[in-house]
Input
Amino acid sequence: MDQLKPNSANSSPLTPLTFLDRAGITYGDSTSVIYGRKSYTWTQTNRRCHQLASSLSSIGIGRGHVVSVLSSNNLATYELHFAVPMSGATLNNLNLRLDHRTLSLLLRHSESKLLFVHTLSQSLIHKALSLFPPNTPLPKLVLITDDTVGSHQMKTPLTNHVTVTETETEVETVTTLDFIDTYEGLIAKGDPTFKWARPNSEWDPITLNYTSGTTSSPKGVMHCHRGTFIMALDTLVDWCVPKNAVYLWTLPMFHSNGWSFPWGIAAVGGTNVCSRKIDAPTIYRLIELHGVTHMCAAPVVLNMLTSFGRTEPLRKPVHVLTGGSPPPAGILKRAERMGFVVSHGYGMTETCGVVLSCAWKREWDLFSAAERARMKVRQGVRTAAATAEVDVVDLKWGVSVKRDGLTQGEIVVRGACVMLGYFKDQEATSKCIKNGWLHTGDVAVVHEDGYIEIKDRLKDVIISGGENLSSVEVEAMLYTHPAVSDVAVVARPDEFWGETPCAFVKLKGRLERRPSEEEMVEFCRERLPHFMVPKTVVFRDELPRTSTGKVQKYVLRMVARAMGSLPLPSPSPPPPPIITPSSRM
Output
């Protein structure tokens, strides 16, 4: 028995890149990716990724290098999930909606060697690179276009320009920057028989993803080949994604690498339907045109689809995996009526994808629509393979909380899903990974049946008069108001209570009459415990959100703090004296 140990035959590094080679053989003639009028088969996608990896290697890209991508969901973005790590490099998908200052910071922090940039983002990158300090190496540029272009269109320069702002004397000078090639030009030059660079260890990094910055400045999350391999397969099994599924990319691939589905859809030989534009008419059109079976969507996208005004349900059910924030029960009920079969998952950038899912029980099919929605808002139980353990622990003592659906604690995770750490930030890594657990910062309860339900982010818990109240619960109730389209609740300073809920509300369009702040408060008062009722309601045209639909509550907290503290309540006048017969003169 002592001789039965790991050896070179049974310990080959796990990597999701192997899914592509298999797809090219097993599903070779099946459609792999559709983007507008263009499509490829899995044989073609496999060959193109080998060619691109070959070209990257020929220009000096390899192990230890970071390759960045700034593009929407399209053919190139999908293929780069394979081609970049096949060259040995680490893939860094950049958030398309970041401003040029943040992009400049992230490009410098990641020490990116090569940047693939879509033609529509040239101006944005122009500004970002202009902020690089003198003598700081710039990443090489490759141009992505929506049309198939040849290498003869390379060397498209970013012209010299000088910018002087009206309020500052700062002058930004940008030297001429050249694209070394186009995306299709690199593919055309590559070798389709290229022997791609398998990881030396399954712990080698494969991706660098910057967090969305909903609660703080973005941090660079590093994931390895092993974790993404297990996560991709685990999510397919947990969500029961079949072979030849048709997957619509409404979830940005730059958000945690699309929850690992770029690799997962290759594993099942499915079809990826990509679209630069994501709105309700486009989504419904693509569903009908391509026979979409699956899609991932944040609750804000579900809200958009169910508020669009379409009354006719889908011809065939579409399975939707939602996450990112707890979906309000009202949105889930409307989605179900439209023909969307919604599953709820929980994860974060640091976990590479879904680690909790609301695994459905057959007996719940007999529940009413309202009761089914109430069950679906729970995050659920750990997935089968990605997480070894998930627990909810007391915030003070670190012990497991009671399964009573009331006692709150923090969700902690450990398993294959957990990141390697934050890039060049050991201090932040140590604060997040402690005593063998990843501390998520999410506050939750555990119900009697073992299912976990998030109540809030630690930073979003409102402490009013010594009571911890969940902003998520207040938001869920406000979503039931017929005039409310979007809502977020944060703490506002209060001289008496310490903090009180402040609700930022976006109303639906075309209302016959807009409710007042007082009416919204009264609506809450009739449905919530008194201490949970917002003392402030602010109507806004839009709520600040990340590109993945998460409300940027730290922005709203700053707005609430800028309003100042609510004053102490005016002292009540003394009651009139009680006149009794004996007190009369």
